[in-house]
Amino acid sequence: MPWGPLADIVVIVHLAFLLFVVAGGLLVLRWRGVAWLHLPAAIWGVLTEFLHLICPLTYLEDRLRSLAGSAGYSGDFIGHYLLPIIYPPGLTPQIQMILGSLALIINIAIYSWVWRHRRR
What we know:
single chain
C-alpha cells in the first residue's frame, strides 16, 4: 500500500484546511453559503490552538507514515516545504494562542464586513 504518498496527501489536505480556517471567510464574500462550512472549520481551528489540541489529521498522517515505515519525514518537497508551515519548529502554547487569536481576529473582521454589507 502507498502509505507514504497517502501521508503526503493528508499533509496537503491539512494545509488546505489551515488556509480555509484563516482565509475561508473571504470565500463568504462571494458565496454566502460557504459560511456553513467555514464557521465550524474556523471555530475548530481557533479552539484547537487555544486548547492546544492535536488535529485528527495529524494523527492520521503520523499513522500513515508509521505504516510506511518512516519514523520521521522524508526529504521530499512536501516534507521539506509544507510540514514546517503546519508544524513550525519552536511552536509553544503562547505562539498557539497568538495564532488562534490571529485566526479569530481575521475571521471576525471578515464576518463583520459581510454582516454589515448584507444588511444594506
